[in-house]
Structure formats: structure tokens, C-alpha cells
Amino acid sequence: MSGPFSAPSSIPAPDTAPSPGSIDCGPFWPATDLVRLRKAIRIDQAVTDERLRDVAKNAILDVMDELNGWKAEQLAAGYATLTDVPSRYDIDGESDYVVRWGRAIASVIAADLSDRQLGQSARQAGIERAEELSTDADIHRRNVTIAVRDFLGRSRIIAEVI
After folding, report:
1. Distances (CA, A) of 28 to 36, 80, 81
2. Which of 70, 73, 127, 151 is deepest in the core (most CB within 10 A)?
3. Domain assignment present for 37
4. What is d(CA 103, CA 116) in angstroms, rounded to the nearest whole number?
5. What are 26-54's pLDDT values in tens digits?
6. pLDDT, position 161
7. Does residue 7 sit within a domain?
8. Domain residue limits at 108
9. Nearest Cα to 113, choosing from 158, 46, 32?
């Protein structure tokens, strides 16, 4: 299988090693590590560092918009950064808020890359592959909703009107 989420090649393509880097998310939110994201989402070499950075920036903005009201409440309560907010749980030394912040961003990136791959697949490989990628993108979008709801401490129920 090929695409942005395929298993890593045993032979790295020339000049595609991820460059170290992170995206500064402002004074409140933790920086986003692009190398960690690439590994966590298992993004292959077809996605360049520049493309990943662009997609990640937009993902961060989307998640920030979703959590803007919650952030305002935390700032009003005197917490200057996300890591200052008392966690509900500590997982492997990280606050549950930090973990879910990262998951939400990773899920938005995965959905965006799946959508982009869907557009390419529809032209190149046909309907069957397009349907498979569409399902992947839908799963990633659902994961965004779940991550944000978990972050906010809300129910995970997602209902569709038929």
C-alpha cells in the first residue's frame, strides 16, 4: 500500500530525512515537535518537511480555535501555560491535557493528509482506493472530535441524523 501513512521504507529516499524542528504555538500551548509527529502518525517520505509543517500549522490553528474558550478560562484562573493547568491524570510524566492536545493535532494532520491523498487517488487509482482513503479520513476526523471532547471533559457521543 502506498500513501502518506504507509509502512516506512527500509531504504530512506535521498534528502527526505525529517529535519529537526518544532512549531512554536505561542505562550500558552506547548510547541509541536514535527519529528515526533512524523513518527507518531507514521507519515512516509512522500510528505515533505515543508508540507508537514504547513499541514501542522493549520492543524494547530484548528485545535486552538476549538479550545479558545477553555484557554480563556484557564488564563483567567491564573494558569499561564497548558503545563501549569493541574492535570486530571498524569500519563508517563505528562499531563492528560498535553497528551490530548497532541492527539488532537495529530488527528487533524492525519485527516488532512488523507483528504489530500484522496484527491490524488481519485485521479490515479480509481474509486475503490478513494473509498478506502475516505474512510481513513473520516476516522481521523472522528478522532479529532474525540480528542477535543476528552480534553474538555465532555461526553464522546457523536450522533448523525439519518
Report:
1. 20, 6, 4
2. 151
3. no
4. 20
5. 999 999 999 888 888 877 667 888 888 99
6. 63
7. no
8. 73-155
9. 46
Place of cell 492527539: 103
159 Cα distance to chain centroid: 22
Q: Using DSSP bridges, classify how beta strands 94-95 and 90-91 pair: parallel, antiparallel or unpaired.
A: antiparallel
* Cα(105)–Cα(115) distance, integer angstroms: 15
Say if CB 62 and CB 90 are below 8 A apart: no
Q: How many domains does the chain have?
A: 1
Grid cell locating 133: 482513503
Question: What is the three-class DSSP state of 44?
Answer: coil
Is residue 139 in some structural domain?
A: yes
The pLDDT tens digits for 109-122 are 888 887 665 444 44
Q: Is 33 helix (H, G, I), strand (E, B) or coil?
A: strand
Q: Is 29 exposed, middle or buried (0-12, 13-18, 19+ CB in 10 A)?
A: buried
Residue 46 in domain: no
